[in-house]
Amino acid sequence: MVGTLVEQQVAHIWRRMGFGPTAADLDHGVKVGTAALIEDLLTRKMTTPAQWAFPVATDWQGMVAYLGRQFELMRSSPNPLQERLAWILQGIVVVGLSDSVSFTELRGHLGRLRLNPMGSYTQLLRDTAIMPAMMQYLNGDENSADHPNQNYARELMELFSLGLKNPVTGVQNYTQEDVVQIARALTGYTFDWNTSTISFDSSQFDNGNKTFFGVNHGNAGLSQVITAISQHPSYKYFVPARLYREFTGLNAPPATLQQLGKLWGTTGDLRAVVSAIVKSPVFLSTASMNSKVKTPVELLVSGARAYGFDLTSSDYGWQLSTFMNQHPMMPPNVSGWPTGRIWLNAGVTMGWGSIVQDFASASIASGKGRVTELLQSANKATAPTAAMRLCGLGTMSATTSKALSSYVNANTWNRATAAGLLALVLVSPEFAIN
């Protein structure tokens, strides 16, 4: 293998706590050490909506521009972990464009996820529950005393907070009757199509007594529901278990879940749990490193970061939706996007190959991008390793190294060969690993 253990660990930290490193990130991480790098990424100041500078337009062109800006922030934000966590939350507290959810509503939801992804998850649930996007996506605005709708009540427990069973004891977390009773408590909210706002109409609220989780909560409403969920035995496990998989690529053992659960508490302390995970020995273990496959969005952002390609004005939504099946605003369902080897398929390969060609062409045309940097800093003998580092890889197999060397040696060392070499690194098995 090419690359020292520390270089591999630094690259791993950047892939999991951000969207991959540049060559400069690798050098800096090796210099300061892995513990200092992790602490640095954990403690960077949160960016603000003013810094995000999302376009104000809400038509389809505004949506394309918003997506380009979101990708660019994921690529170049001064707080990579904020972007990574916002993306993780986008796959947990899921809302997507639909017949009832427009881009106007969705951008409000995404903005809330981005605002403080290291804060209280419990507060996040309280806020998103009555935002227009969630209300419309899961029919909360259609839930009234006379015409109950159980959709949001079910997904709130199953997908956003508890899961079906307690992961430690195996006990079922809720019953159908709990769904019915909580749906009653969530009635009364209506959507104003003229102002795109949610308001509470007491005449549509079921003000009778509700019993859920085995307790009579009286005339309970949304606030009492979220409080009861936050005190449920499984609340301290469900999202922490997901975060553990996201950052380590592994399933948390019961003892680890119990430790994380104490940190999570009833407030859902995202910062405490994330900090504990990335500071644990398992995070930098060989079992954790290279244990995940990049999703299409991760490929796009990490590739652009490696190339120094500004995504602000890009329009890769059609490749992501048509070939690669991961448009950030169009999750397949309320469960979000799949993970794992499912992304190793022909559609992703085709879409990614066309995007890499864009990166290479832009770098050649600029006359000062990564292609020029590689051409001027390397020769035929050193080019494969130099290209690997420029693309933010901390390691390369002997097989890949040999293939890259064969390509370089078969051609004249010029701009076209340098561009082709960088493109080959981006479509290598090593780059597909997260």
In total, the number of strands is: 4
Quick one: overall form?
A: globular
Provide the helix percentage. Answer: 40-55%
**Major sheet strand order:** 1-2
Largest sheet: 2 strands, antiparallel
- DSSP strand content: under 5%
Structure classification: mainly alpha
Radius of gyration, whole Å: 23 Å
- What's the average pLDDT? 95
Number of helices: 23
Contiguous low-pLDDT stretches (5 residues minimum) are none
Description:
By secondary structure, the chain is mainly alpha-helical. The chain has a domain at about 295-430. It is built from 23 helices and four strands. The protein has helices spanning about 5-15, 25-30, 35-45, 50, 60-75, 80-90, 105-115, 120-130, 130-135, 150-160, 175-185, 220-230, 235-250, 255-265, 270-280, 295-305, 315-320, 345-365, 370-375, 385-390, 400-410, 415-425, 430, and strands spanning about 190, 195-200, 210, 215. The strands form two sheets. The chain has a two-stranded antiparallel sheet. A hairpin with a 4-residue loop joins strand 1 (about 190) and strand 2 (about 195-200). The longest helix has 21 residues, at about 345-365. It is globular.
